[in-house]
Design goal:
There is one protein chain. The chain has 382 residues and is of the alpha/beta class. Helices cover 35% and strands 27% of the residues. The chain has ten helices and 18 strands. The chain is globular, with a radius of gyration of 22 Å. The N terminus is likely disordered. The structure holds flavin-adenine dinucleotide. The site of flavin-adenine dinucleotide has 32 residues, from helix 1, strand 3, strand 10 and helix 7.
Length: 382
C-alpha cells in the first residue's frame, strides 16, 4: 500500500483568537473587514459603526475595479441609485480656452467610464453590511490576531508605533469640496479644468432633490483656499462662474463648503511580521486623478486574493503572504503617484513655453486614439 500524502488543513486561529484585526472603520477598513470575513476568516473591526456627526460632503469617482469589489461584497446594490451617477464622458480642459482632451464611454465601447458615488452613502452602505456580516465582530479595543490591518487613514497614529514612516510631499494646496446645482443638464459629463495653479473638477452627481447637480473638487493654493472658503455664497458662485467660463451652466451652492490640505506620500515599510498598511494609511495621492480610494479598494482586492490562495499552513499574518501582496500593489501605486505628481508640476509651471507645450500636448493626445484607449483602461483599474 502506498503511503497517502497528508491532506493539508487550513490553519485556523486558536479558539477565541481572531485571524485578522482591522484598525479603522473608514471605507477601506470596512471593505477589507467584509472581504476577509466573506472568506470565513474571523475578523475583528476596531472602529465605530455609528454615522459621523458631520456627513462627508465629498463624492468619489470610482473605477470599474472598485465597483466590482463592492458588487462582490453586496454593497453596490445597497447604495441608492440617487447616490451614484454614471460618467459617460470626461472632458479635460487646458488653460488656453481651446485645448481639451475628451474621453467617451461610447467610443470605448463601455457602458460608463466611472461612477460618481456620494461618500456618505457609500460609507453608510459599508457600515450596514458590516452590522450583518458573519465572522465579523466590532470591538472597541485592540485584540490579538494573526494579522493586523492598519486602515486608519492618512493621519494614522498607529503607523509610527509599528515603525513605518510616511514621507509627506506637501503641495501647498487645499482641496475645496461642495455640492452644486446647475442650470444645464450635465448629461453624465465629468469636467476638469487645469488652470495653473488651480485644478477644478465638476463631477456629475445627482441628489434625490436635484436631477442635475455636480460635486466640486477645486484644488487651489492654501491662501486662496482660505479666501474662497470665507467668501459669501454669491461671491463664491461668481468665482466658480469665472473659473468654468459658464461651460457647465450656472452653478449654485447646495450646501456648505469644506477644505482639505493636500499632500502625497507612501509609507515605508508597508508591512512587517503580522501587520500591513492599506488605503490612505499606506499611500496618499492628490485627488486630481480621483484615485485615492480606488487604490485603497485595489489593496483590499489584492489582499483578499492573496489570502484566499495562501498555502494551507500559512497564517494570514505570514510576512511571505504580505510580501506577495506588496509586490502586486507596488507598480500600481507608484505609477499613480508619479502620474499625478507629474501632471501637477506640468500644470503649475508658470513659463509660457511650458503652458503652450502642455496645451498642445492635450490636443495631441486627444487625436491619438490608441493612447486615449490606454489611458481609459488605466483609469478604469483594468
Ligand atoms: C477632496 C478629496 C476628494 C477625493 N476624491 C476622490 C475620488 O474621487 N476618488 C477616489 O478614489 N478617492 C478620492 N479621494 C481620496 C479618498 O478620500 C481616500 O483615499 C479615502 O477616503 C481613504 O479611505 P481610508 O479608509 O483609507 O481612510 P479614511 O477615510 O481616512 O478612514 C480612516 C478611518 O480610520 C479611523 N481611525 C483613525 N485612527 C484610528 C485609530 N487609532 N483606531 C481606530 N480607528 C482609527 C478614522 O476615524 C476613519 O474612520 C479624495 C480625497 C479628497 C481629500
Amino acid at each position: 500500500m502506498t503511503p497517502q500524502a497528508p491532506t493539508p488543513v487550513a490553519k485556523a486561529a486558536a479558539p477565541g483568537r481572531h485571524d485578522v484585526l482591522v484598525r479603522g472603520a473608514g471605507a477601506v477598513g470596512l471593505a477589507a473587514a467584509l472581504a476577509l470575513a466573506r472568506q470565513g476568516l474571523r475578523v475583528a473591526l476596531l472602529g465605530s459603526l455609528q454615522a459621523p456627526s458631520a456627513p462627508d460632503i465629498r463624492a468619489y469617482a470610482l473605477n470599474r475595479a472598485s465597483v466590482r469589489l463592492l458588487e462582490g461584497l453586496r454593497v453596490w446594490e445597497a447604495i441608492a441609485q440617487a447616490s451614484r451617477t454614471p460618467v459617460h464622458e470626461m472632458r479635460i480642459e487646458g488653460d488656453d480656452g481651446t485645448s481639451a482632451l475628451e474621453f467617451s464611454a461610447w467610443k470605448s465601447a463601455l457602458a460608463e467610464l466611472a461612477w460618481i458615488v456620494d461618500a456618505a452613502a457609500l460609507e453608510a452602505a459599508l457600515r450596514q453590511a458590516a452590522r450583518f456580516a458573519p465572522h465579523l465582530e466590532v470591538v472597541d479595543t485592540a485584540v490579538p490576531a494573526s494579522l493586523t490591518l492598519l486602515a486608519e487613514g492618512r493621519d494614522s497614529a498607529t503607523r509610527a508605533a509599528l515603525g513605518a514612516r510616511m514621507q509627506r510631499h506637501a503641495f501647498g494646496h487645499h482641496a475645496i469640496a461642495a455640492r452644486l446645482a446647475t442650470t444645464r443638464a450635465h448629461a453624465g459629463v465629468a469636467r476638469q479644468w487645469f488652470r495653473a495653479p488651480d485644478v477644478l473638477a465638476l463631477l456629475p452627481m445627482d441628489t434625490p432633490q436635484h436631477d442635475h447637480a455636480y460635486a466640486l473638487v477645486w484644488s487651489v493654493p492654501e491662501a486662496r483656499a482660505g479666501e474662497l472658503l470665507a467668501l459669501p455664497d454669491a461671491a463664491f458662485e461668481a468665482e466658480l462662474a469665472q473659473a468654468t467660463g459658464g461651460a457647465a451652466g450656472g452653478l449654485g451652492l447646495l450646501g456648505a463648503r469644506a477644505g482639505w490640505p493636500l499632500w502625497a506620500g507612501r509609507a515605508e515599510p508597508l508591512f512587517g511580521h503580522g501587520w500591513l498598511l492599506v488605503g490612505d494609511a499606506a499611500h496618499v495621492v492628490h485627488p486630481l486623478a480621483g484615485q485615492g480610494l480606488n487604490l485603497g479598494f485595489a489593496d483590499v482586492a489584492s489582499l483578499a486574493q492573496v489570502l484566499a490562495e495562501r498555502e494551507p499552513w500559512r497564517e494570514p499574518g505570514d510576512p511571505r503572504l504580505l510580501a506577495r501582496h506588496a509586490r502586486e500593489r507596488a507598480a500600481d501605486t507608484l505609477a499613480m503617484m508619479a502620474v499625478t505628481g507629474m501632471l501637477l508640476h506640468l500644470f503649475a509651471h508658470p513659463s509660457p513655453w511650458v503652458r503652450q507645450l502642455r496645451n498642445r500636448g492635450l490636443g495631441w493626445v486627444n487625436r491619438l486614439a490608441p493612447m486615449k484607449q490606454a489611458l481609459t483602461r488605466a483609469a478604469l483599474g483594468r
